[in-house]
Structure formats: structure tokens, C-alpha cells
Hints:
Keywords: Protein transport, Signal, Transport
Distance between the termini: 57 Å
Pfam families: DUF1571
InterPro entries: DUF1571, LolA/LolB/LppX
Order of helices and strands: HHEEEEEEHEEEEEE
Largest sheet: 12 strands, antiparallel
Helix content: 10-25%
Protein name: DUF1571 domain-containing protein
Shape: globular
Radius of gyration: 18 Å
Subunit structure: Monomer.
CATH class: Mainly Beta
Number of helices: 3
Number of strands: 12
Amino acid sequence: xxxxxxxxxxxxxxxxxxxxxxxxxxxxxxxxxxxxxxxxxxxxxxxxxxxxxxxxxxxxxxxxxxxxxxxxxxxxxxxxxxxxxxxxxxxxxxxxxxxxxxxxxxxxxxxxxxxxxxxxxxxxxxxxxxxxxxxxxxxxxxxxxxxxxxxxxxxxxxxxxxxxxxxxxxxxxxxxxxxxxxxxxxxxxxxxxxxxxxxxxxxxxxx
Length: 207
């Protein structure tokens, strides 16, 4: 049993999967998905849209069903509609650092995109190890399971280890788990119904 375990944990030769995934994502003009996050603050379900170079829209399903927020990179502000209906009701205009528009894990809207996540993983790589485990499947899709773990005492935003499940064809993350220095899981995120290069409505990111 031990030799099989060692094989599963061994490095797989080839290009750095994190850098390769980031290059793919940086080439996209946009994407949309459903994000399901489990952490110490409970479950969050968000219909998430991203448009380069940094516009974000979140339509909340849980815990604040119906709330909508839009971040525009050109203004640096977050427009929040607690009860939905962008464009029809006055919005709250907030800074991305405001606690009202940060997730239960403290994530900022302007730093919520997948590219920012992978850059944080790269920062952890600089002082740690990267392992690509044996091929696996997630929800029936072939994936690459990549583990990035920091040296003892190192962390990025309190994260000392990331587990990434990258779609084998697109390299887009389909699942991400983060752990602290004690090995306790901080957050588990599923990225579902991923659409790459979608046709957004003309006013999708309009406040």
C-alpha cells in the first residue's frame, strides 16, 4: 500500500500547472459561473460574472438572496443593491474594503477573480512545494489535482496549503480548498456551470 501512496504523491513532470492555468485565464475576456463556498461563516452561493480588465458582478443566492453588487474597475467602487433590481433602485456606493461587501472569509470584491486566486497560489509556490497528483475526476470531468504547500511557518493571507482541481481541458479551477498552518480547512469552494467567453448583456455590469 505504501508504494502506491508514494506514487500518488510524487511530482508529475511537465509545465507548472498553476502558471499554465493562469496563462489560460489571463487570455480570456470574461467568464461566468456559480460559486458555492463553505467556510467558518457558513455557505455562500453566488452567481459570479467577470469581465476583463476587472469588472465583477455578483448575484447573491445565499445568504442574502436577491442582493446584487457590481464592482467597476474604472470607478474603484462597489454598487450594492441589497434587494436586487440594479438600475431601478438607488444603490449603496461603497469602497471594496467595506465590511458590507466582503465575504465571510474576508475576501474583497475587487480581488475575487480566479486570476487573483492563482496569483496567491503562485506566491505560496515561491516558498513551498507543488505536487500534481495522479489524474482524477470531478463531477464526471477529468481534472488535474494540484497541491501547493508552503514551507513551515509560511502562509499567504493565512493560507498554508491550496488544493486545486483544474479542468483537464481548459485548466479552469472547478474546486479549490484552502488550509491554515495547522492543517485545518479554512474554505472549500466549488465553481460550477462555468462559461468561458460568454455573451454578457450590454448592461450586465452597468450600475
